[in-house]
């Protein structure tokens, strides 16, 4: 039976001779010296023959038995006697324990790199202290080095944007779709940056992307032979937006008065929310008429660029309808009761509010008070038939019909009977979703023609945008590829940012994204 030495137990497989072992402040301190052959010059690789000097190095190793392990290593510095070599001296390295200008062993560095990858700087430092690892915040973050980017792009490349700061600054992540691994991260989403990357890394045969025009231009400039595939999820999302817009525009067909003699509903009342919508619509369009860009208008009005675009390209009636439906509907089931009680002599808003709370009303007092004021003025909206919101109707339309509950199917059928425009939007949405789910891209041209000729305006606009991107959308509805893997990494980036990496430099964030968890 072989008796193992202390070197075999603490530092197995290393050319070391342990001289002393001590316990100091809860750590094990090992005094050792290298016992291997003289090293080779790292520049000319000639073996050393003369010792220049000796000195002590302190190396942190993995903990042993719940105690930190520190190796005090007595190392030799050698002369390099090669006259053509520019290096005069060099230090011996113990393979598996030391590296130039490192205070931790490769094994300890590997653990520290894993801690830094998962937790970051300060949280990682706190964990290392509990694990008896000597890892400070800066040393941990120094372990995060991005892997090299392959010279050629993957065969199936996915491109998508992610937000450094939502609504303000964005970056681009490029993913190998086949292996679901991030390839590189760019500091912006500009066409030029993406095109330069594609030119420097050729080889992409299929590019999966969303419908951002900057990516489309970059692919056509730098990789014209690559086949573009528009992501199906983004297509269905755009279609859902068009269906919801149609439902909002024709909300009058759905929100009929509860009584036949109530007459048409009056115009939208003057509320702070609707007044703000009118004012913003007026300000945005006045500034747009002067020639200012969307970004310039957003800076002047302190609005996000997407908000400015929505106010610039949407009708005022659509914006007002959207504002009315936002958070509305809480009082609708109780308006008939409020009007009946008001006519019976109960004119106190607070008393009516207390009665509604007992009936299950979940809104605020100010909503009830505002409605009572309209009753006093004679401008109250007649009691409306309780109908689902446009967003709810849209969710019913976009969902597979076999998954709907019988009650939802019945309500959807009532909505279809009430409005022919919503019926047309519903039929077209069902046809498009069937194409997406069954990969029937060959039917897309016929669908576009039908939507543009007989579909509602919002659906026709969506069909027109699909026609402009016809090859990529057809490929998206035909081929099995999608941006699902890319979207997964975008969600992972959001998690990484929540771990304080979002406040770090782009270099550190990029390294963390490219290092697989």
Main beta-sheet annotation: 5 strands, mixed
Structural class: alpha/beta
Number of helices: 23
Shape: elongated
In terms of DSSP E residues, the strand content is 15-25%
Number of strands: 10
Question: What is the share of helical residues?
Answer: 40-55%
Euclidean distance between termini CA atoms: 43 Å
Lay out the secondary structure.
Elements: H1 6-10, E1 16-24, E2 27-34, E3 51-64, E4 67-79, E5 89-91, H2 106-119, H3 122-130, H4 137-142, E6 156-165, E7 169-176, E8 181-186, H5 191-200, E9 206-209, H6 213-222, E10 227-230, H7 232-249, H8 251-254, H9 272-289, H10 294-301, H11 305-313, H12 316-325, H13 335-343, H14 349-358, H15 365-377, H16 390-398, H17 406-418, H18 420-438, H19 444-454, H20 457-468, H21 470-476, H22 484-498, H23 506-514
Parallel strand pairs: 2-4, 6-9, 9-10
Antiparallel strand pairs: 1-2, 3-4, 4-5, 6-7, 7-8
Helix pairs in contact: 2-3, 5-6, 7-16, 7-18, 7-20, 9-12, 10-11, 14-15, 17-18, 18-19, 19-20
Folded structure, characterized:
The chain is of the alpha/beta class and 517 residues long. Helices cover 48% and strands 15% of the residues. The strands form two sheets. Strands 1, 2, 3, 4 and 5 form a five-stranded mixed sheet that branches. It has a five-stranded mixed sheet with strand order 8-7-6-9-10, with helices on both faces. A hairpin with a 2-residue loop joins strand 3 and strand 4. Helix 5 packs parallel to helix 6 and helix 18 packs antiparallel against helix 19. 29% of the residues are buried.
